[in-house]
Structures are given as structure tokens and as C-alpha cells.
Fold each of these.
Amino acid sequence: MNNILVVEDDPRVADFLQRGLRAEGYGVQLARTGTEGLALARGGEPALLILDLMLPGISGLELCQTMRAEGHHVPVLMLTAMSSLEDKVDGLRLGADDYLTKPFAFEELLARIEALLRRGREQRVKASSLQVADLVLDRERMQVTRAGQPIALTAKELAFLELLMSAPGRVYSRERILSNVWGTNEDPLTNVVDVYVRRLRAKIDEGHPLALLKTVRGFGYRLDAQEA
């Protein structure tokens, strides 16, 4: 069963969505505020997130932006009473996958949900392995190879590498790396990131003509196949 997290503060709309989606065979979890919705989205694994734009606590846009910044890739369908192009563009730029303007037909909502879930399944299949140049991470087996040769990595090294390989070329700050790999309780001044960068370089780049793990001075680290 696909579980959908609905974050909606209007009781009538929330009840309508909950009853309608459950009748269609979906599992439904309901949050009334943006803060509650963020906590539930972080703590569970919803197949889809339906967000109202205007919410108590934090807005739907802020919730979506936070989820994306933390590396969550759950499909997001934004609901809004505002139909301006600017609002929709803002939502899409902050990580929403689709928009539906209130009032909406339930049949259209179902069609949008089915399309997003289908797209999510296709992306998960495609993302079962990550590759940058001849470096390959098999997410199913959590195994890494470069030029066909296996590389032994610790759990933290794997998590670090997976983060970098999930967005080749993107620069990750030390703070972002600490948040995603070690959690938010680590001291941002610690040198643990630098230690693990040295370890990864020794394992994935040493002995290869092209170094993939690069330092962007003053910003952080990125992994790509471009020449330095």
C-alpha cells in the first residue's frame, strides 16, 4: 500500500482528502501544521507528500525546501488557493514536483498522484546504482567499484560517497555533509569531514589518472569527472 502524508490545516479539505484517498486504497497520514508535517515526513517514509501552501507553523514552501535540503526525494504535490504563475514557479524551484489549484476535481488529483508515484518508482529503479566516470555505487548491495575493481568502504564512508554521487558536480559544504551523514548534533567546527575526505581520496582516487573528489576552497567538496 502506498502511504500518503497530507499536510492540510483546513478541516473540510483534510477530511475530504483523507476519506477519498482511503477509499481508493491509499494509506493516509494527516498533519494540521507545517511543523507537524515536517516531523512526520522526517520520521516516516511516505510514498507521496500532499502539501497545502499556506500552513500554520512553517509554510508548505518552507517544508518542501527543508525536505529537499536534507536530501529527501519523496514526490511533493502542492495544493494552493493561489493560481498565480509566480507562486507555482516558486514552489517548483523549491522542490515541488506538481501543483494543483483549489478547488480541484478529485479525479484530477488521483491522476496527478498516480503520475507522481509512477515517476517516483521509475526514478528509484534508475537510481538503484550511481555512477560518476568509472566509479559505480550499487545502492542495492552498497558496493563500490572503480574501473571494475571493488573498493572496501566503511558505513560512514559509503554514506558520504553516496551523498556526493547523488548530485555530481554539486558543492556540499562541511555543514551540509555533517547534517546528512553524521546528523545535526556534530560540532560544525570538527575536522571529521576533512578526515573522511582524505580517506575517500585514498580509496577512490589513488592510482587513477583522474581525481573525482575535489575541494572547492571556501565552499566545500564536490565529486565529478571534470578535469581540475
Amino acid sequence: MSELRWNPLLGTWTMVASNRKLRPTMPKDWCPFCPGEGKKVPSEFTVYAYDNDFPTLTQHPEAPFVDETGFYKSAENHGKCEVILYSPRHSVKFYELSVGHIIDLLELISDRCTALAADKKIKYVYPFENKGEAVGVTMPHPHGQIYGYPFVPQKIETELKNCKDHYEKTQRCLLCQMNEAERKSDSRIVAENDSFVAYIPFFTDYPYGVFVVSKRHLSMLSDCTAKEKEDLARILKVITKAFDQLFNAPFPYMMVYHQRPVNSPEYDDANDYYHFHIEFYPPFREANKIKYYASSEMGAWAAANTSAVEETAPVLRKLVTDIIEREESDE
């Protein structure tokens, strides 16, 4: 059974995908993401995208379940789920990829976002990566995913509303002003280059919850110039390397791309007030200690951070600075 079910309490859709229970745990001696191993994976590639074998959303949906009471409503789970393979190398870490390779990856993600947006039933295109068993990863081969939703997810809706409200009151982009505030403070910035600034924002609910925000006001990854994509590749490379050095161990995270909706007339003016950025949600608060999203966070959406970001940001910034200095001295 795969469909959308409307939650009248929250005013949003829940995706039902019974087929997801069939996802395999990768055997020790085989990986379907390695070159030529999976039925959809070619024998040679640099980066590669293909349709998820166990999609939550599909362009060929089944008829949805009809609630016998007539009270609840459901809808087709029309959409798209794709897998993005980062590299043919099974054990390579993101930051071990060359800058050129990461640019190829960002180009692929951008191209796939544009392709999914061509389906007029898709309203939001959402690239993301889950890294590490702590966030439920069953396939360790480096990869990400892209979902094309037939609705704008509720968290994005909330961001869009607040960004639009701020724009209407001030004629300023909220994230542009966040960039200005964080750069003025400087205490929470962890990395910066010509096109992007990375900081752990004043309000984040994760001790190491980095935001990577474009300096130029743009609303989609595909709006980035070649120079901006190169700078994004460089800043992602150094941040993910610093993460692994925090506790001298592989550092799990969720990384998500926030960009404007597509095929949604109500958001036709989102270019004015919404701003492309990437958010990291790393669950570790200390070495091997997870910051759980428990009852307050999940049940009430009342987030609590276990550390002041003015304490955590300098630690990460020092690691980033040391990495950059070592790499420059090696050149």
C-alpha cells in the first residue's frame, strides 16, 4: 500500500509506503551501488542517478485507499524518488573526493532537480543525504537521494511563510539578513569563501547544526554560477572533513538542500524572499553520545539544544582553519 494520507491536525500529508519494509540490509560481501553490481548501476561512472528501487513516491501510483468512514482523505503518492551515487569507490568519504568530482556531483543534482521539476505534479524537489548508522543508513556506499514531492512539505512551508512575512515587513530577505548578522557577530561562523558562508546559527537545535548559505541572493541550486558551485564544493568538502575530526571518528549527519518550490503558482514570487541554503543535522553532541529528538522535540516541536552554539562553533572553526592551512601548505 502506497499513498498519501491527510493529517487534519497538522494540515499536511503523511506518505504511506509499505514497500519500504522490503529494503535490504547490505550483505557484508556485496554492494548494489558498486560499479556493475546492481541491476541499474553501470560498470563505469563518476557520479550517477537512478530511480530508487523502494520509492516512497512514484510517477505510476496505485489508486489510494478509501476510508470507509468518509471522514479522512487520501491521495495518490505521485512523485519521484532517485538515488544519487557519489562515487564508484565503496569506502570513499565525501571530503576525499576531489573538488572537481564534487562539482560533477552538484551538477548532477542540479540537473536532476530540473528534470523532476518538469513533472507538473511535483511541487517540491528535495535533495538530501543521510550518513551513518545513527541516522538509519543501511547502505554505506556514499550516496544521496532526491525526492520530488506532490506537495510542499510542512517545514518548508513554515520557512517560506516566515521568509515572506519578513520580506513584506522589511523588503529584505531573511536569510540575507541572517548572513549579515552572523558575519557581524563572527562567533558562530565556521567557514567562508567568495560565494558561501557556513555557520552554526544562533537558534539551531543541534550542537553542530551547520547552515551553508549562498552569499548572493538566489533560490535554487540551479541558479548557482560555475564559480559558486566550485565554492560550494570546497566548503562542503572542508566542513565534512572537520566533522570527522571532531571526535576522531566517522561523524553521522543528515544534509538537506532547501530551495524554492516548483509548479506552485502560490509561490511564484518566492525568488524575491526565499534563499537557497543547505542544512546539516548531526545527531552527535559528544563522542558517541547522540542528541535524541525525544518527546519535547517530536511531540511538541519544542526544540532544545544541549550546547550553546557559541561553544561548539569555535571548535569546528578551528578544525576547518587547520585543514585549510594544511592543504594550502601542501600545494
